[in-house]
Specification:
Number of strands: 0
CATH topology of one domain: Serine Threonine Protein Phosphatase 5, Tetratricopeptide repeat
Number of helices: 27
CATH architecture of one domain: Alpha Horseshoe
CATH class of one domain: Mainly Alpha
Oligomer: single chain
Amino acid sequence: MNIKNSIKVGLSLLIALFFSGNIFAQSKNVFHDRGFWAKKPSIETIESKILAGNDILEMGPSGWDGTLLAIMADLPLETVKYLLDKGPDVNQMTHHSNNYLMWTAMKGNLPVMELLLEKGSRTDLINSHGQSLLMHVAQSGKADKELYEFCLENGADIVNDRDENGKNVAQVAIGRLDDLSFLDYFVEKGLDLDAKDKDGNGLFHSAVSSGNINKLKGLVAKGISYQPNLQTGENAFNFVGGGRSATVSLELLTYLKSLGLNPANVTNTGQSALHNLAGRAKDTSIFDFFINAGLNPNTANADGDTPLLLAVSRGSKEVVSYWLNKTDNINASNVKGLTPLALAVEGNNGIDVLDLLIAKGNKITWQDKQGNNLTFLLTNSFRGGLNDYKEKLQFLKDKGVTTKGQPLLHIAIEKGEFELLQYLLESGLDINQVNANGYTPLHFAAMNSKDTTILQYLVDKGANTQQKTEFEETVYDLASENEALGNSDINFLKASK
């Protein structure tokens, strides 16, 4: 291959690597299975799995390895010690660029924290979200001075520590902290309970997301301000339902209103409480509360999303039906051009919701500017569950949506979903179809595969090994430049179709 073609292949590889770096590299290591650790396996059981060929040191998908999953599953100290004695790097970067100690701190497990320190764990790391070890203790919500003292004794700065949003330790802790008397400990250590984050929000707004009325009343009794944020135009209502396990009740809303706060508040970016809650709340009386307070159910935020558009991704049929009855334009789209039906497909909502949207007049003919249709969105949102995918794809096809011309095979390869790829090929998709960048599925796999398995599969299924890219590269050219295939025999890619 000449220099010119080499440069072209290199460019192709860069484009491909931008999209994917883990093609069909899925692990079958039992230690990567959360269900295995949830059963609290004994040391003997773990040892037997190792002898059976499972690698306890291998890093799993998304940065979770066996030792970390064991810690997160609260296995006994002796079991964790046994795993650490196997030699994992206690400072290797895991999910969110945390080391083991950070995750253990969030669990509030002091004995394991001390063990990790003995093993050489660093205490000065900052993860990908700008969070320190101390912030992970705060996230635990535990009113345990020993956890905080552990951090302080190992270099933590409780006064000046901030996360990526500018929140201090108290603001991070307050969402899960039930014992408000523990705030006195923070004050003793020099924390200012009136401090604001980088957006100008304080402790009260951080606490609202918990939905705990008694906590909010306790903060007010301590003199913590609940006044609106003039910097962003937010008030406490804009934080309702923000926590992962937040409780949203009419009692909470009534309490906030009793403080003189406006339920119909709209922020400087056009965000209202309805935008925040449309896809989260399940009780439609919550929506009635805000609409009766003066909010328009058809107002879009800065992203062009109305409450309906925000509800359709994961909202129940009842919730989506509620917003459909409030909308004045069933086919309104956001700034990305996504309609309610497109968002429902992309969000993997149920067929009952898709059917409802179509029955109400949502256009089944949606396409984006690149010509991608609803089958593209469905495939691109695939997260496992092939039977569910089959059912939804057939539903869309029955409604007249075509798979022709859609790069569904490329998506399956990019995601590393072999069963999905098999199904799509069995469904009759063109194995040599090019995507927007001029690559066939075989081209795409040649640039990204970790071994020759998928390449051989595609060739056996009839993929054209001689079809060239727009840069005149063959499949063999692309595979030759893939370093992961450096020790593999790829001569079969030279063969004719």
